[in-house]
Every structure is written in structure tokens, then in C-alpha cells.
Amino acid sequence: MRIGELSRRTGVPVPTIKYYLREGLLPAGELTSPNQASYGDGHERRLRLVRALLEVGGLSVAAIGEVLAAVDDKDGPVHELLGAAATRLVPEFGDGGSGGGRKAGSGAGSDGGGAPDAETVLARDRVARLIEARGWRIESGNKAAEALVAALASLARVGHGGFVDLLDDYAEAAERVGRTDLDYVARRVAREDLVEAVVVGTVLGDAVFAALRRMAQVDASARMFGEEAPTG
Amino acid sequence: MRIGELSRRTGVPVPTIKYYLREGLLPAGELTSPNQASYGDGHERRLRLVRALLEVGGLSVAAIGEVLAAVDDKDGPVHELLGAAATRLVPEFGDGGSGGGRKAGSGAGSDGGGAPDAETVLARDRVARLIEARGWRIESGNKAAEALVAALASLARVGHGGFVDLLDDYAEAAERVGRTDLDYVARRVAREDLVEAVVVGTVLGDAVFAALRRMAQVDASARMFGEEAPTG
């Protein structure tokens, strides 16, 4: 199909498609004449994936480029491929990144100097114990684990150190979701589809779970506080 | 304490603190002379909260302003207060917002015109059935439910319509996390603390859960694919 048809089918304006082509998010079409290219179903699907990562996943164009690189990477064992994809999808606050802000755990709350503050030390110890208690096969220095340490340390710094008491319940629920995710992924046959499923499921799955958690909170709040109106 | 001491204790530079004061994220200090103000422990705690929402929660300064307004709002029954706080924390893709991107579900994948596309109609039906099946007390048009519809429709558009099969497992896990959240919140006595706990727990709790989900995926992947290296 021509670029105009691709635009009509996906609702993405032609100039935007051209921008994605320049940025390498979309592979070039097949040239049918010196200044005319033809696009296939693969382009349409990839374009929808880019839009989903952008709109629902909230990823930057640069991050989408990295994720697509993982999808297109055909080498290495499946587990490493999945790990590479998952690593690029870890929220940025754990290890800096392109976000404008300063890094959590490296500034606010520390008393200057390069050593981790007390909250970070405590959180790191708590996370290590969690991994051990659950028997999770996770390498030390895993980026998601570091992100968890940063989030818990931040909670402690704003007076919510008690939040760690919820960690076991959260981990239990996360284990259920993580297993469900992998079962879904394991249905794929081709490795390209496999990695794509992880990427899509991880980014959009976060959005799905966050929405469900809000809904469950609204329900729990209605049950707990809905009947009466405390006078504060 | 003086502003310099507040800066030293929190690691936030003085010009940044002054910016937060101008933006209303931090209440003014008590004037001790015509051009000198004094700050208390409340300022220090609020400043750490702002930094946590910014660095770990990834909220914009404008969004933080809205969240703090919910924290500081002393009127109305607790359930409505919690609902107001939760609503401001729904991810932006469900209902537009300050993010630069287009809205999901209103452009990509629709065949032009204002009517919702087939994926949105199907997703809306699926979410309605989920709410009914679980007996969740949620008003129609709830923003989190709309965000869930948008995420599921996006998944379907990129060829992952099968992801809805996971919805019940996700909802089961979310219900567990949502109840845990409310139990944590219900420990608070003062209503200011109550709302603050919801806000902090929701924003940072998403980060905690996302990190735990990644860790559980890595573990599940290691168990499923780690032993062998498929030749793909």
C-alpha cells in the first residue's frame, strides 16, 4: 500500500509516519519507483505498536527505539532476550535516564557525599530479604530491584517507612501477575512475537494493572468509608 | 529554621525551594523580619513529599500542585476526599491531560469520525462485565475504568487482543493490593494524613508494584527458559 493508505488505516498523519521512518522506528518501505515506496501489513502492525507504546505506555521516541531494537534482535537465548527487553522497560527513577529530574536516592535525603543514606541502606536490606524469602532467581544489581529500593527509600523519607509492611502482600500479587505474564508470553511460537509480547505486555500491562488497582481502591474505600461520613 | 538549613536537611538547593514557594507547592514560611522567613518541620516533610512525587512518582509540577490541593482540602466526607485524590492520580492516557501526545482511543485505530472504534466498544463491554462479576462498587464513567478500557483497546489494536484473557488474574491481584492499600490508609487518624497516605501510596505504590512485577517476570522467565537455550 502507499503511505496515504497506511495513514488512513492507522489514523496516523503522513508527516508523523515520515518522522517515524526518519527516526528508524518504522523500516523503510519497498521502493516501487525512485520516489515512491510501498508498505505492507508488517508496517501497519509496527506503526500501531509504536503508537501504543507512545500513547498508552508513555515512552519517549528514544525509548521506543530501544524497545524495538530488542524486539528485532534475533540473537542470543530466549531468557537473555527477555531480560534485555525487560531491562529497557524498567522505570527511569531507579537508575537515572532521560527524565529531566535528579536521580532518586542520590540527592534528596542524603546528607551530602556519595554514600547511600540510611533509608537506602535499610531498603536495600529489606529487598534482599524479600528476594531470598521468595526464592526469586534475580541477579544482584538487577535494575528492577534497584528501582524498588529507590521507591521504598523515597517512601521512608516522606514519613511512610511503614509502607514496607505491605511489601509481602504486594510481592504475592506481583508473583501472580508475573506468572500470568509469562504464561501469556509462552504461547508465542516465533521469538520475535515472544519478545514483542513481553514488551507490549510489560508496558501496557503496567497501565492495565495501575487502572485495576485504582478501581479496587475505589471499591475498598466505598466499602470502608462509604456508609458513614466522619466529621473529621 | 532558615531556608539554608531546610536546604541542607533535604538536599534540595535553595533556588529550587524558592521556586516551589513561588509555585505554591510549599507554604510560605513565618516572617521573622521583613526579608527573613522561618520554616518548620511541616515544611521539611512537605518538601520531601514534593521531591518524592517528582522523582519517584514522575509527576509534573502542575500535577503535584493538584495532588497537594487534594491533601490540603479539609472539607467533604472521607470517601469523596479519597476519590478526589485518586481521580487526580489516574494515568493521563485515559482522559487526555497535560502530556503532549494525542489521546489513546480517540485517534489511532479509529476509522475517522467521533464514534468509538470496534476495539474500544469491545473493551468497554469487557470492563463492564469485569466490574459486575467482581461486584466492585464503581460509578459508570470512573476515570480508572476508562483508562483500563483505553489500555485494553490499545492492546487489541497492536494484535494483543488475547491479553484480556489475563484480566481476571490481574483483577484478583489488584483486589488484593487495593485492599492492602486501604488497610494501610485506615491506620491513619488525622484526615490530612489519611489523604496523604492515599496519594503517596498510590503514586509510589505503582512504582513499587511495577518493580516487583519486573522482578517476578525475571524469576518466572529464569524458571521457564533459563535451563535450556532454544535455537529459535
Automatic annotation (TrEMBL), chains A, B:
Query: Which InterPro entries does this chain map to?
Result: DNA-bd_dom_put_sf (IPR009061), MerR-type_HTH_dom (IPR000551), MerR_fam (IPR047057)
SMART domains from the xrefs?
A: HTH_MERR
Annotated region (Disordered), positions in chain: 93-118
Ranges for the HTH merR-type domain? 1-70
* Bias kind Gly residues: ranges: 94-115
Q: What is this protein called?
A: MerR family transcriptional regulator
Keywords in alphabetical order, please. DNA-binding
